[in-house]
Design brief:
- The complex is a heterodimer of chains A (946) and B (77).
- Chain A is built from 29 helices and 37 strands.
- Chain A is α/β, with parallel strands linked by helices and 946 residues long.
- Chain A has five domains: 19-133, Ubiquitin-like (UB roll), CATH 3.10.20; 153-290, Alpha-Beta Plaits; 314-367 and 578-728 and 739-749, Rossmann fold, CATH 3.40.50; 374-571, Dimethylsulfoxide Reductase, domain 2 (3-Layer(aba) Sandwich), CATH 3.40.228.10; 809-936, Barwin-like endoglucanases (Beta Barrel), CATH 2.40.40.20.
- In chain A, the strands form ten sheets. Chain A has a seven-stranded mixed sheet, covered by helices on one side.
- In chain A, helix 8 (313-331) crosses helix 25 and helix 10 packs parallel to helix 19 (545-558).
- The longest helix of chain A has 19 residues, at 313-331.
- By secondary structure, chain B is mainly α.
- Chain B has one domain (3-67).
- In chain B, helix 1 packs across helix 2 (25-36), helix 2 packs across helix 4 and helix 3 (39-50) packs across helix 4.
- Classes of the chains: A alpha/beta (946), B mainly alpha (77).
Chain lengths: 946, 77
């Protein structure tokens, strides 16, 4: 194996359709008009020396190394900033150019430390390469002159260093921060000889606005900005392209290795979701894979108050099978179930649901997507016919109006957010609908035209009011509606949204938003050109989550914003494989490809393939499993890769349910919170240790490739096979590719998917079949999957969770850039530097009324439970609304959230909880007692032999 | 299965389907319960109706009534 090298074309591609023919060094080259000479040369395999140019950022023309000669033109223009012209004859290598380049390199090297042999970038340094390329043999200026060699090194960032003494001030880092990431944290301070890269206002990187996405490190041509792991370990010697295991963007990375040691994760330029960009999590926060708390041996115990006992894999698997069989014999076939993970691969999710349906003999399988995007599946299937988003991420390049509702892309989907911000900087306009002033509302070079800071729980009402404006003001796309939609359904819906209770004036009173702003936003979305809606859990995690998804689908249809690039309905999926786990038949009522289990003909194809008869009744959803456990009819649970105790609502209810079960089996990397109630722990493997696929938010099936052997001895898919075998249900596969082959055989939308295809194409978006052999970037182009688009009436029904004198504030929860979900991975990395505890955001008005100052401990109580955490006083939240994250088990934000859930899918209503906030002295009694329980429950007995 | 919770969930379903046009809301509610509620949940709501059905909204009550015709197993087979 060797390193995967990508070609750097020096400047970004031109998207022009018109082509231009020219001659470079005697070679005839044809390229799109507007292409730089540098890029055209590289197209022909001719590498023009360069330092300040790289194809992720626009040309800058500062290093003067890429100069060329053009026949008939005076001077030596920079090839990076000079576009091609028809008939142009270019020379990239002449004596004159050689002399100039030599002189330029001499100047650079005269102010650069000559420590190449001990430099961390040795072997991966463009300055070093260019010195060789131009044939530099001496530096005539000596080393005694004024220089920058004594500049201070900034190692404040946990993941990379900034060594100004090695900086050539090419501005690649500054431009990457601006153009690629869109944070504008870096600048060049000073002038002339004093010019220097500066983070923020001449601050240390860690104190600046830098979000540690790594774009600057990647762009740096020297060792000025370099990963600390490269400094520690050395240069990698081989790399493997794989997919990030954090959010639903699904970035491709090169895992760069030394043997079996991971040196660094470098975003892959050919990754079709991320195009070479990354965020702090995927780029740097992978150290959890080697964290000392990772469990590598299977463990069992009879009761949860006993210490764990390490056992062999055979004994652990045998215990799972014997306990599950015993429970079924005593309590019935339906008394056990399993939960698949949106953090695991498609193949692993498929195997867990197959184990449950074929091995347990019931449909009690659910997935953590239940608690996030299950309303998306139901809502979009009823309106459009497919349980997925309609676009690819590239679609945003064609968008004129972006409507973001209930999503916080800069924190939760940062790499897509960078694409979005770039489009906004180019002039697209923005509407944000969110109770909280998320960063997108106003940040460098981005400002929302409308921010509808609605009261939590009123999404459906606001969406109806937008529709009311569009319909009553005649802003509909009537041609689209006539041609593509069910007219009868449209007429009923149009009459409904036109009713007075849906007017902005009426809804404004309920939602706390001005009617003018609602009308303005509606007009902009309907008339501003290509309109695209991006939404997240702020839409789905409500008692009307499904209704709001349908209302979004209605809005896109009524304006004709469906079926072409630049438009569409785009659910931003939280975890890496939310889409995939749903696709794989993880829900208790359906098999792969969203086909209902009651469909006898379809079910029989699985029965034939699996050699088992399958139950045609839907199984229990996660929340139903808890309820059934408490009534004594559900006794055993296999949980793969989800921490239900920390992530599911109403922690007291979940812990009571887990306590009522006789055998809880947890398969995870760490002894998570759920494991404190478990009887069997099966150590899991990281994404670095397995083969498989993840499917991202744009339906893109990406390969996950194993770069090291599983540290626990078994990949996750192998563990599920072992349990199945012990349960008497043999699932003979020798590699995850065979699992995908079976999925493709049984699932029409995956019919064309194979590892061979993914290796050739890089990735594909389902549907991928005979009709669309390379996948489907944009759906519903000529017709909706269901035929005619279905407008559905979305009457606003207020949540049953009410504020009142005892609980006068509304709590809404969310996530932050540096942490991921329950924090099991990111809390075990240096990312804790940015977020070491959950904080409660509270408006200054509410804080003052309660005598709460910034940083104070406060109690947060709801009808369900209470916890304590520190307050952050901020006007990001409106008066009457408080906000916190759920990343830390010490806080357990979900001890406060309730059992209320979406009407259609049981997706919990995390986003609306009536609470009270009061000053506190520190953690609550419950937090202390839970902490003691968790510590006790994680004890591992010493091996008998010791 | 706690009856009060199931009643609340069933009524939520009812509040979505009742305002829809061109469909029989009672049939739609019953269909949703059959497609998405596990048999023991349906058995529990049916038992609750038999015991008087306190709290069930009108159309939901009617829909649960139709579930009696569904072959509801007790979940322990």
């Amino acid at each position: 194996m060797s390193l995967v090298h990508e070609i750097d074309y020096g400047t970004p591609p031109s998207l022009a359709a018109e082509t231009v023919k020219l001659t470079i060094d005697g070679n005839e080259v044809t390229v799109p008009a507007g292409t730089s000479i540098m890029r055209a040369a590289m197209d022909a395999g001719i590498q023009v020396p360069k330092l300040c140019a790289t194809d992720s950022v626009e040309a800058f023309g500062s290093c003067r190394l890429c100069l060329v000669e053009i026949a008939g033109r005076a001077g030596t223009p920079a090839s990076c900033t000079t576009p091609v012209a028809a008939g142009m004859v270019v020379s990239t290598q002449t004596d004159r150019l050689k002399q100039i380049r030599n002189g330029v390199m001499e100047l650079y090297i005269s102010d650069h430390p000559l420590d190449c042999l001990t430099c961390a970038a040795n072997g991966d340094c463009e300055l070093q390469d260019m010195a060789g390329a131009v044939g530099l043999r001496e530096v005539r200026y000596g080393t005694g002159g004024e220089n920058h060699l004594a500049q201070e090194k900034d190692d404040s960032n946990p993941y990379f260093t900034f060594d100004a003494s090695k900086c050539i001030v090419c501005s690649r880092c500054v431009r990457a921060c601006e153009e690629v990431q869109g944070t504008f944290a870096l600048t060049i301070q000073g002038r002339g000889f004093d010019s220097k890269v500066s983070a923020g206002m001449a601050e240390k990187f860690i104190d600046s606005e830098c979000v540690s996405c790594g774009a600057c490190v990647q762009a740096c041509p020297t060792a000025t900005l370099i990963e600390k792991t490269v400094i520690d370990v050395g240069q990698p010697e081989h790399s493997v392209v794989t997919t990030c295991a954090y959010c639903g963007v699904g970035c491709n990375f090169k895992a760069e290795m030394r043997g079996e040691e991971l040196v660094r994760m470098v975003p892959y330029k050919d990754g079709l979701a991320n195009h070479g960009h990354s965020c702090v999590k995927g780029r740097f926060a992978w150290g959890y894979a080697n964290h000392r708390e990772r469990i590598l041996n299977p463990m069992i115990r009879e009761r949860i108050d006993q210490p764990w006992r390490e056992v062999s894999w055979d004994e652990a698997i045998g215990r799972v099978a014997s306990e599950f069989k015993r429970i079924q014999a005593k309590h019935g076939r339906l008394s056990i179930g399993g939960i698949t993970s949106s953090r695991c691969t498609n193949e692993e999710a498929y195997l867990v649901q197959k184990l449950v349906r074929g091995g347990f003999g019931n449909n009690n399988v659910d997935t953590c997507a239940r608690v996030c995007h299950s309303p998306t599946g139901y809502g979009l299937s009823k309106t459009y016919g497919t349980s997925a988003g309609t676009q690819d991420f590239d679609s945003v390049e064609h968008t004129d109006v972006v409507l973001v509702i209930g999503a916080n892309p800069t924190d939760a989907h940062p790499v897509f957010a960078s694409r979005l911000k770039k489009r906004l900087r180019q002039g697209a306009r923005l509407i944000v609908i969110d109770p909280r002033r998320i960063d997108l509302v106003r940040m460098p070079h981005v400002e929302a035209q409308y921010h509808l800071a609605l009261r939590p729980g009123t999404n459906a009402a606001i969406l109806n009011a937008l529709a009311h404006t569009i319909v009553t003001e005649g802003l509909m796309n009537e041609a689209f509606i006539r041609e593509r939609c069910d007219i009868s359904a449209f007429e009923h819906w149009a009459a409904f949204v036109s009713e007075p209770q849906n007017s902005p004036e009426a809804v404004g009173l309920i939602a706390g938003v001005s009617p003018e702003a609602i009308r303005g936003a509606a007009r902009l979305y309907a008339t501003g050109g290509n309109g695209a809606i991006y939404y997240g859990l702020g839409v789905t995690e409500h008692s009307q989550g499904t209704t709001a998804v349908m209302a979004i689908a209605n809005l896109a249809m009524v304006t004709g914003n469906i079926g072409r690039p630049g438009v569409g309905v785009n659910p931003l999926r939280g975890q890496n494989n939310v889409q995939g786990s749903c696709d794989m038949g993880s829900f208790p009522h359906e098999l792969t490809g969203y086909r209902h289990i009651s469909d006898g003909a379809m079910r029989s194809t699985f029965e034939e393939a699996w050699g088992r008869s399958l139950d045609g009744e839907p199984g229990l959803r996660i929340m139903n499993m808890f309820d059934a456990a408490l009534d004594g009819s559900f006794k055993g649970l296999y949980v793969q890769g989800e921490d239900i105790l920390q992530s599911d609502p109403n922690t007291h209810h979940v812990s009571a349910a887990l306590s009522a079960m006789e055998c809880v089996v947890v398969q995870d990397l760490f002894l998570n919170e759920t494991a404190t109630y478990a009887h069997v722990f099966l150590p899991g493997s990281t994404f670095l240790e397995k083969d498989g696929t993840f499917t991202n938010a744009e339906r893109r099936i990406n390969r996950v490739r194993r770069v090291m052997a599983p540290k626990n001895g078994m990949a996750d898919w192998e563990i599920t096979l072992a349990i199945a075998k012990a349960m008497g249900f043999d699932m003979p596969y020798s590699h995850p590719s065979e699992v995908m082959d079976e999925i493709a055989r049984l699932t029409p939308t995956f019919a064309g998917v194979s590892y061979d295809l993914l290796d050739k194409a890089g990735s594909v978006q389902w549907p991928c079949n005979e009709k669309m052999p390379l996948g489907t970037p944009v759906m519903h182009i000529d017709a909706f999957v269901r035929g005619k688009g279905n407008f559905i009436i979305t009457e606003y029904v207020p949540t049953d969770e009410k504020v009142g004198p005892r609980f006068p504030l509304l709590l809404t929860t969310g996530r932050i850039l540096s942490q991921y979900n329950v924090g099991a991975q990111t809390r075990r990395t240096a990312n804790v530097m940015w977020h070491e505890e959950d904080m409660l955001e509270i408006h200054p008005h509410d804080a003052e009324q309660r005598g709460v100052r910034d940083g104070d401990w406060v109690r947060l109580d709801s009808r369900t439970g209470g916890t304590a955490l520190r307050a952050r006083v901020t006007d990001r939240v409106a008066p009457g609304v408080v906000y916190t994250t759920f990343h830390h088990p010490d806080t357990q934000a979900n001890v406060v959230t309730t059992d209320y859930s979406d009407w259609a899918t049981n997706c919990p209503e995390y986003k609306v909880t009536a609470v009270q906030v009061a000053p506190s002295n520190g953690p609550s009694d419950w937090q202390r007692s839970y902490g003691e329980h968790a510590e006790r429950s994680r004890l591992i007995a010493k091996a008998a032999a010791e | 299965m706690e009856a009060a919770k199931l009643v609340m969930m069933a009524n939520q379903i009812g509040r979505f389907f009742v305002p829809q046009r061109d469909i029989d809301p009672v049939a739609a509610i019953a269909d949703h319960l059959v497609k998405f509620w596990e048999p023991r949940m349906r058995a529990a709501i049916v038992a609750h109706l038999k015991a008087g059905g306190a709290g069930l909204d009108g159309p939901v009550r009617e829909a649960v009534g139709r579930l009696k015709e569904v072959n509801v197993v007790n979940g322990l087979s």
